[in-house]
Amino acid sequence: MLDLTYDTPKPKVISGAKQDWELVIGLEVHAQVASNAKLFSGASTRFGAEPNSNVAFVDAGMPGMLPVINEFCVEQAVRTGLGLKAVINLKSAFDRKNYFYPDLPQGYQISQLYHPIVGEGEVLVEMGDGTARTVRIERIHMEQDAGKSIHDMDPAMSFVDLNRTGVCLMEIVSRPDIRGPEEAAAYVSKLRQIMRYLGTCDGNMQNGNLRADVNVSICQPGAYERYQDSQDFSHLGTRCEIKNMNSLRFIQAAIEHEARRQIAIVEAGGTVDQETRLYDPDKGETRSMRSKEEAHDYRYFPDPDLLPLEIEQAWIDDIAARLPELPDAKKARFMADFGLSDYDASVLTADTANAAYFESVAAGAGDGKLAANWVINELFGRLKKDERGIAESPVSPAQLAAIVRLIKKGDISGKIAKDLFEITYTEGGDPEEIVEARGMKQVTDTGAIEAAVDEIIAANPAQVEKARQNPKLAGWFVGQVMKATGGKANPKAVNEIVARKLAL
Predict the structure, then answer these.
(1) pLDDT in tens, 407-439
(2) According to the model, what pLDDT value does residue 479 have?
(3) How does 36-57 read in b/e, with b if 16+ C-beta sit within 10 Å?
(4) What are the b/e assignments for 346-357, b being 16+ CB within 10 Å?
(5) What CATH architecture applies to the domain 446-501?
(6) How far is CA 413 from the centre of its chain?
(7) With contact defined as beta carbons under 8 Å apart, do 89 and 71 qualify?
(8) If I label 111, which of 47, 382, 423, 482 is the partner at 20 to 30 A Cα–Cα?
(9) What's the CA gap between 322 and 335, in Å, rounded?
């Protein structure tokens, strides 16, 4: 397997009025588990259902209703942990986090504060410029999602939709290893990619299936290195948490604003309050939500209705044996097996559908590098123009592989291939049959090409003399031959014959 090595990206530096400052960022990513049922009930998790139609008695907090753990949700959490190279804890336990909110009918959230199901892991975050950072994962724990309060349906009333209540979330908590807004967005994007490969979360941020709480602090240059050496948080500034970010673009903007806000406070001689804040995308600013010091005492205690969760190593090993090839491994394989560049391999492994399509084309074409060029440049480019995904491609892998094979055999030129691709894209059909039926096959008969060259040379004696004085002008003859043959002459053969006839 190809060994991928990277340089570490430089931390984001923001110039204040008095000095430079660096950023320190940690994220808590809430990922909705891809499951048909909720964590402790059989109620559906389908998005877009009628309000309050996916609610079991347990979710509604009805008296006497006992939670029953969904084994599949546990398996999905384990799969995610394994995908992030994390420790899977054989023993974990559920706690009650007690607080009142209208969309939490139980009056508490079942979570895993003290004994999470997944421990330390890591994820490689690539920045696309040859740099990458390994971000440590502190833990992953399972918890229930809350419902949704709706405030814009009536001027005098608020409404509550409990459909999301009890849906299983994985909270993925990172160490404060991220050093800039772009890194934070890339980290969330990488987590989403891995979970999509694993099938544990669809990563849909628009629907709220993936959300992030972003912890931001500032520090003086050199302070972060002292923290890394000692793991003493006193070297870092006071952090503020920005809640419920559901857009990569907003994550970057919120971090940038929050960092500048903190810099202004510190440089003015003030102190940053540790608090929870919300990002307002319309105003491009964060605003205070609640102070951490004044936050509720959630009175965590072990959930009396749920026994500690014990899982067997053999079960974990079975899940591990069934894991798919993950993005980093697939990318390394594409680079090694097909000779692809880092960029091309990254594009093709961005999601499982892209990767599967490419592999099918490469297998049928017998040339991975040429297949990659056509998938990325022609197919992806055209799909983007038409606002289509790979699943909606009018050109199948078999059809594109056939086009690549025709190029490799010399039956068609690159220019003809583009025309053929357009026909296949818009009209469909077998590319090989289209080439035959429409007379698109490249002229490889050297006799016919030579005759065309002789004719053009004989008709243009002045141009011949110029070309002999300046060999670069031989391209004119090549162009004339291609024109005379309707673009069907083999360009390589034309170049060779022109050079020989002109004695260049």
Answers:
(1) 998 888 888 899 999 999 999 999 999 998 988
(2) 83
(3) ebbbbbebbbeeeeeeeebbbe
(4) bbbbbbbebbeb
(5) Orthogonal Bundle (1.10)
(6) 35
(7) no
(8) 47
(9) 24
How far is C-alpha 433 from the chain's CA centre? 38
For the segment 301-349, what is each residue's pLDDT rounded down to a tens digit?
999 999 999 999 999 999 999 999 999 999 999 999 999 999 999 999 9
Residue 217 makes CB contacts below 8 A (sequence gap 6+) with: 23, 24, 25, 176, 236, 237, 238, 239, 240, 262, 272
Q: In this structure, are residues 108 and 99 in contact, taking their beta carbons and an 8 Å threshold?
A: yes
DSSP-derived 3-state class of residue 365? helix
The domains of the chain are located at 24-320, 325-437, 446-501
Q: How far apart are CA 313 and CA 323, in angstroms?
A: 15
Tokens of 129: 């410029």
The distance from CA 147 to its chain's CA centroid, rounded to whole angstroms, is 27
State whether the Cα torsion 485-489-492-493 is positive or negative: negative
pLDDT (tens digit, 9 = 90+) per residue, 34-67?
Answer: 999 999 999 999 998 999 999 999 999 999 999 9
**CA–CA separation, 312 and 79 (whole Å):** 14
